[in-house]
Amino acid sequence: MATCDGSEARAALERSVLRRVPPLLTDLYQFTMAYAYWRAGRHNEPAVFELFFRDNPFGGGFSLFAGLSDCLLFLQNFAFSDDDVEYLRSVLPAGTDAAFFSYLKELDCSAVSVSAVPEGSVVFARVPLLEVCGPLAVVQLLETSLLCLVNYASLVCSNAARFRLAAGPRRRLMEMGLRRAQGPDGGLTASRYTYIGGFDLTSNALAGRLFGIPVAGTMAHSYVTSFSSLEEVWPQTLVPCGGGGPIDFICLVKGWLGRVCQLLGSKTSLVREGELAAFLSYAIAYPQNFLPVIDSYSVSCSGLLCFCAVALALCELQYQPLGVRLDSGDLCRQSLEVRRVFKECNKQFSVPQFESLIIVGTNSISEQSLAELNKKENEIDVVGVGTHLVTCTRQPSLGCVYKLIEVRGRPRMKMSEDPEKSTLPGRKSVYRLLDTDGRPQMDLICLSEEAAPKAGVSLTCFPLGLTKTLQTVTPAQVTSLRLDVFTCGQMLTDGLECCGLL
Amino acid sequence: MATCDGSEARAALERSVLRRVPPLLTDLYQFTMAYAYWRAGRHNEPAVFELFFRDNPFGGGFSLFAGLSDCLLFLQNFAFSDDDVEYLRSVLPAGTDAAFFSYLKELDCSAVSVSAVPEGSVVFARVPLLEVCGPLAVVQLLETSLLCLVNYASLVCSNAARFRLAAGPRRRLMEMGLRRAQGPDGGLTASRYTYIGGFDLTSNALAGRLFGIPVAGTMAHSYVTSFSSLEEVWPQTLVPCGGGGPIDFICLVKGWLGRVCQLLGSKTSLVREGELAAFLSYAIAYPQNFLPVIDSYSVSCSGLLCFCAVALALCELQYQPLGVRLDSGDLCRQSLEVRRVFKECNKQFSVPQFESLIIVGTNSISEQSLAELNKKENEIDVVGVGTHLVTCTRQPSLGCVYKLIEVRGRPRMKMSEDPEKSTLPGRKSVYRLLDTDGRPQMDLICLSEEAAPKAGVSLTCFPLGLTKTLQTVTPAQVTSLRLDVFTCGQMLTDGLECCGLL
């Protein structure tokens, strides 16, 4: 997927500016801790943190891991400005040694290394997705920003994958949640990672420009209701697709409207003149992109009739109308009615173009309503999803955590008053074991000093959390789930290779 | 609230850069509609949209309106870059007239006027909060961005107000949701608007720098678990607050630990040496900012004992320890136990400083758990809230809409297949009527051509949605709810005056 020619470098620049995460965007306690490490002379001790989540989201069995490319960009640009440091001087407790601020000014991630699961991978609870090694104070300071970049990206990506599964492989899915996201950047993040999670399209134009995601959309109700009479239609003519002189399009459409109303037994007097004017005007502007929203007043009494009249006129001039959008009421029932009318029009007026018209449905679609929609008879080809997708209504946070597992080569562990909050100490390798058909059997977490499992050799392991239940497995293939992605301040990948995005 | 001296102008600049919303961050259909308006010569027709929400969030009776200052910044900077326009050229349907792209390049908000409810106001469902007037194509293009800027800001601000009400006026509230927000900007927005909604503190350092919000925080579990032995403590001495020679602080604390364990009948052998080392080290670094998290292993067997030992040693050197943080388990029960121990220490060791120690509770606090916490006996002084605050778990979107109400002086209306989605046509004035005690009686929506209500004069009106129920009211005072905030491309206010924020 590429942005328009010639502007790719500028899009990359704008991406990096718009998505720049200042290192001060973190919790204040990272600085008080960093100071305490520094004061004790421990700031450069080699330390390792790992990032994981404790439960798969949405009560499901998996998650997708996302946000890596943003993390790598953050690490590469990690540096405090003089203003940042002056601000910290003003809010850290009195008595903070001035030399600490000089130390902060020099900090970067040149001594930090990261291994990570590739962007967009299917992952499971409690598996370390990101391992961050480096000087204790530096890797401590990274905590909040990394969590912030991974948590929502992974959550919304996983949510998108669930919508994809609920929709089935055939139906196209469009993300349109910008107006309900957590502000501008939340919206951009949602567009980017729902595409990785399996959506086909976005309404978000900036996401299209910056990330090369296919964009779509035609009109809102406000466009329709802005018209009140046919006098507002201008120009009133349309040149046929194959060429020739301009045709009086209003006159042509009026003729078709009469025939459609007769065919369907509808009253032309109930047809909203403003709606007809809006459709006419849009079709004259974009004869090859005619896909109106048809529920501004009444689908059956006005919107559908106006659509058919304009679409039949377009067909007469050899244009291909695209379809309709339904945005309220019972989408399944209406889609059946709309499809029936399309077929009847083709039967009566011989317009085979009407067989390929698409029906778009958009009305507070949730994963559950999408699954229910699949159980009912319906004719919806494209589903647009906003609120429930981007806000992840069923579970609006993933809950990734970033835990210290090793300092100076010694494993570290947290116990906590809640047993499930205890951590697994020590550095770990994670292997994905595959069977002879290449299907995943399990993800195996080992201490990194343990030997890697071998293909064809059986091994015995404990399912996580069940220390008394042994399981034996013989993998046909063994892959390492995490890859080195950042070493000595440099990105080894942009994190997005695996999913074909920029 | 002011940021640190001298850097305020730079903070303002950074705010505007970080929070810049490119006008391309909108739905593609705004452009196809703008083109159809332009093609029909209607793009400069005077039009009016209004922004409102249909239901109060969280099943409650009110909302706070927020996001205005971001909207004004957006309007003032509204302009498409050449790259934006080139991108649109590549994605809009073939046949789009080239002159339209020249038109887009010239667009700004110099002909747009906005009236709005002040930032942070208490508002109600279906009341027009923002009225946007200007050329039809321009005010259409603004839709998605304005909704994106108002929706989450108002939602999270309202959520904060509900936490404030649940917490009662005495308890202090700290926002700490950055890691669970929808990415960096979502986190910054949450910090900003939860402060307006009634929170006292944030953990978000950047929000502190950019918006002057008081910041707080001391340590995480990783800091505690990074220590394993007293050998890691350095320096090992502390100079008394009042001056004098350095005291062997480890030795002093060890003495106090023995006395505390004896007092409480605890075993020193169960005390985690690493936890004691972590607290010691932090106290030496920040003797006036000692507020450790005490549940990294076990509050009663280790964390609380370590705290008391270090805090008693600090008191002996005339420092004032601050308190403790509890982050897991039953917060109420633990807070009672902690307070009891503090009182016992004071009784036994005569440390009146222990009477003013604070207890901070942070463990997946929701509005409901906060309300329940209030019903139980507890000793929690400060509550830190993250996930449930910033993701607004109970209702993660507000659902503001932006509807066309007038074109060329003629009222416009949408009917829809869902009756509750119908709009109220025409421009409106909104008045807040107050009684003789200055308490709000009702918000009155009138057509703008209707005469304003007068103080002392009774009036009759219909409660919204109930066209057959008349209500009579005599206001003692009448105020206009919306103010002019943007005229001819210029902000008349920065939107934040009312709440004392930058």
From TrEMBL, chains A, B:
<dbReference type="InterPro" id="IPR013785">
    <property type="entry name" value="Aldolase_TIM"/>
</dbReference>
<feature type="domain" description="Nicotinate phosphoribosyltransferase N-terminal">
    <location>
        <begin position="24"/>
        <end position="151"/>
    </location>
</feature>
<dbReference type="InterPro" id="IPR007229">
    <property type="entry name" value="Nic_PRibTrfase-Fam"/>
</dbReference>
<dbReference type="InterPro" id="IPR040727">
    <property type="entry name" value="NAPRTase_N"/>
</dbReference>
<dbReference type="GO" id="GO:0016740">
    <property type="term" value="F:transferase activity"/>
</dbReference>
<dbReference type="GO" id="GO:0004516">
    <property type="term" value="F:nicotinate phosphoribosyltransferase activity"/>
</dbReference>
<keyword id="KW-0597">Phosphoprotein</keyword>
<keyword id="KW-0808">Transferase</keyword>
<dbReference type="GO" id="GO:0034355">
    <property type="term" value="P:NAD+ biosynthetic process via the salvage pathway"/>
</dbReference>
<dbReference type="Pfam" id="PF17767">
    <property type="entry name" value="NAPRTase_N"/>
</dbReference>
<dbReference type="InterPro" id="IPR036068">
    <property type="entry name" value="Nicotinate_pribotase-like_C"/>
</dbReference>
<dbReference type="GO" id="GO:0005829">
    <property type="term" value="C:cytosol"/>
</dbReference>
<comment type="function">
    <text>Catalyzes the first step in the biosynthesis of NAD from nicotinic acid, the ATP-dependent synthesis of beta-nicotinate D-ribonucleotide from nicotinate and 5-phospho-D-ribose 1-phosphate. Helps prevent cellular oxidative stress via its role in NAD biosynthesis.</text>
</comment>
<feature type="domain" description="Nicotinate phosphoribosyltransferase C-terminal">
    <location>
        <begin position="427"/>
        <end position="494"/>
    </location>
</feature>
<keyword id="KW-0662">Pyridine nucleotide biosynthesis</keyword>
<comment type="similarity">
    <text>Belongs to the NAPRTase family.</text>
</comment>
<comment type="pathway">
    <text>Cofactor biosynthesis; NAD(+) biosynthesis; nicotinate D-ribonucleotide from nicotinate: step 1/1.</text>
</comment>
<keyword id="KW-0436">Ligase</keyword>
<dbReference type="Pfam" id="PF17956">
    <property type="entry name" value="NAPRTase_C"/>
</dbReference>
<dbReference type="InterPro" id="IPR041619">
    <property type="entry name" value="NAPRTase_C"/>
</dbReference>
<dbReference type="InterPro" id="IPR006405">
    <property type="entry name" value="Nic_PRibTrfase_pncB"/>
</dbReference>
<protein>
    <recommendedName>
        <fullName>Nicotinate phosphoribosyltransferase</fullName>
        <ecNumber>6.3.4.21</ecNumber>
    </recommendedName>
</protein>
